[in-house]
Amino acid sequence: MKVSGQHFRTIWLKPDDERVVELIDQRFLPHRFVIEDVRTVEQMATAIRDMHVRGAGLIGASAGYGMYLAAIEAALRRSFDEHMARAAAQLKATRPTAVNLSWAIKRQLKSVADGKTAGEKVALALRAAKLIADEDAEHCRMIGQHGLKLIQQIVHKKAGKFATANPPCGGSVNVLTHCNAGWLAFVDYGSATSPIYAAHDSGLPVHVWVAETRPRNQGSKLTAWELGEHGVPHTVIADSAAGHLMQRGEVDLVLVGTDRTTYTGDVANKIGTYLKALAAKANNVPFYVALPSSSIDWSMRDGMKEIPIEQRSEEELKRADGWLEGQQVEVRVAPERSPAANYGFDVTPRHLVTGLITERGVCEANEKSIFSLFPEHAP
Ligand code: MRU
To answer: 184, 5 in Cβ contact below 8 A?
Structure first.
């Protein structure tokens, strides 16, 4: 997608040195656009853990490149396989919820196993890392094409009603999203944002309610920034405003991403997603989840019981950060002595999900419908 008119992916190989991975360090957005060079698997693990990169698809792509860097290191050591196993464990320990992480690591371990020499294994790891990234971008592009049809249907349904609605949402299809399931959360396009970009690019009137997504504000910092760079009309709202807007008929569609969805259709996503799904159900607003199949956990049946939920530091919740006179500053927003519980994700049960938008099309959030799109995973 575009940054100041120039096309960027979130992660790529340095053009003049393929042993270096470059990525957008998202900690500084929207105020500064910083590119980080990553040379070791250790540095990649830090980038994932400390959220220089984040979002399920990008976590997977970063792990893919991390395993490639590990292969370069392993080729210089006595035991290739031991170093790769250590690197896999190190990367896997960075963040627990997004299944794309272990999916990409497993895929890399499988691909290097086919190499006979260390040199061959490095070449295979490079090829797999590029493939994981390219597939992520292509799958997100396809999600955009399938999701576009849903937005077109809403445009047809709303025809004639546009003129009477009030700004900022009057005259538009109003999509509400949470967190950042945009191109910054993937390699390109995004999952939830891809249909929005496709609709905007094809001239449909679309406006996005962007929930700020406390405590890290991926909505107000990242989603608002990338929509703005692409020229998509949007409005940042407090997380707690979503129910109010739905009740007033100012949301046509809720569109979110996911970090892990079970093969039965339970959806783990950024904390606060579940409340939005409940409000959508109560107000008859369609609630769709956009995801590449790399975010489906084919081994998990019960999302509420089985999906590991990341718990992050108290400090992240008790402080807020922002920019002041060109400096990133942090301020305390809760009493120092009050304990805080900082859950990173929640699980929306399948019965609250209207549908899943995947690279192969739209399906219902249930086992039968998911397997009908992905029969190769059926038992
Ligand atoms: O903690 P983050 O920023 O990695 O969480 C990201 C989200 O929850 C997104 O909504 C998400 O990853 C789904 S789309 C990749």
So the answer is: no
